[in-house]
Design a protein that fits this description.
The structure holds two protein chains of two kinds. In chain A, strands 2, 4, 5, 9, 10 and 11 form a six-stranded mixed beta sheet that branches. In chain A, strands 1-3-8-7-6 form a five-stranded antiparallel beta sheet, with no helix packed on it. In chain A, 0% of the residues lie in helices and 56% in strands. The termini of chain A are far apart. Chain A has strands at 3-6, 11-14, 19-26, 32-38, 45-51, 56-59, 62-67, 72-77, 86-93, 100-102, 106-111. Chain B is built from no helices and eleven strands. In chain B, strands 2, 4, 5, 6, 9, 10 and 11 form a seven-stranded mixed beta sheet that branches. In chain B, strands 1-3-8-7 form a four-stranded antiparallel beta sheet, with no helix packed on it. In chain B, β4 (31-37) and β5 form a beta hairpin. Chains A and B meet through β4, β5, β9 and β10 of A and β4, β5, β9 and β10 of B.
Chain lengths: 112, 115
């Protein structure tokens, strides 16, 4: 069955540094991958989508890479700010449908 | 543009009871998906509705059921509640069912506690 792994340990970084979060998947070749941000007590908010034929996608301070050989996506936040502190979820399509399966998320803490 | 709204925000039920959770989709969206999120976990897909028909289901028992109405609002019903049903229930809407590129727009969820 499809399996998505995100680092369950919190990532603590200093303001201004680049945060890099990892999403690994097994037993599957997704057509696309999405990243979401979730704040405590709130629903996830969509950030970026990257397709299997795209290597990299950028949006302002965010960058996502997608390596289908390694079965891995990296999510980067450059010039991180305390306001970036949240849980970040990666999600893959389920067997080439529009239904998503989510990883467990990685909690990012940016301190001043 | 009105976002996804869910009600109630919090709910406490007793084991064995039944519960109905409600969701209003974002304006213009015709697909609704429901997810269950246990504490410290990622959202797990329950099912999806497209044009009032169930369009895919995750690994949840039949006591989890749903409805989508002509105005694209939706309900999630859970019968015979169990303690493990305690979770945040998220509703998400999207524009079309057959597009692989539609991001999900989530509500802020209903926190269900079963005692």
């Amino acid at each position: 069955s499809q399996k998505i792994e995100q680092n369950s340990e919190a990532l603590n970084i200093q303001e201004g540094k680049t945060a890099t979060l990892t999403c690994n998947y097994t037993n599957y070749s997704p057509a696309y991958l999405q990243w979401y941000r979730q704040d405590p007590g709130r629903g996830p908010v969509f950030l970026l989508l990257i397709r299997e034929n795209e290597k990299e996608k950028r949006k302002e301070r965010l960058k996502v890479t997608f390596d289908t050989t390694l079965k891995q996506s990296l999510f980067h936040i450059t010039a991180s700010q305390p306001a970036d502190s949240a849980t970040y979820l990666c999600a893959l399509d389920m067997s080439n449908t529009d239904k998503l399966i989510f990883g467990t998320g990685t909690r990012l803490q940016v301190f001043p | 543009e009105t976002g996804v709204t869910q009600s109630p925000t919090h709910l406490i039920k007793t084991r064995g009871q039944q519960v109905t959770l409600r969701c209003s989709s974002q304006s213009g969206h015709n697909t609704v998906s429901w997810y269950q999120q246990a504490l410290g976990q990622g959202p797990q897909f329950i099912f999806q509705y497209y044009r009032e028909e169930e369009n895919g289901r995750g690994n949840f028992p039949p006591r989890f059921s749903g409805l989508q109405f002509p105005n694209y609002s939706s309900e999630l019903n859970v019968n015979a509640l169990e303690l493990d049903d305690s979770a945040l229930y998220l509703c998400a809407s999207s524009l079309v069912s057959h597009s692989y590129n539609s991001p999900l727009h989530f509500g802020n969820g209903t926190r269900l506690t079963v005692t």
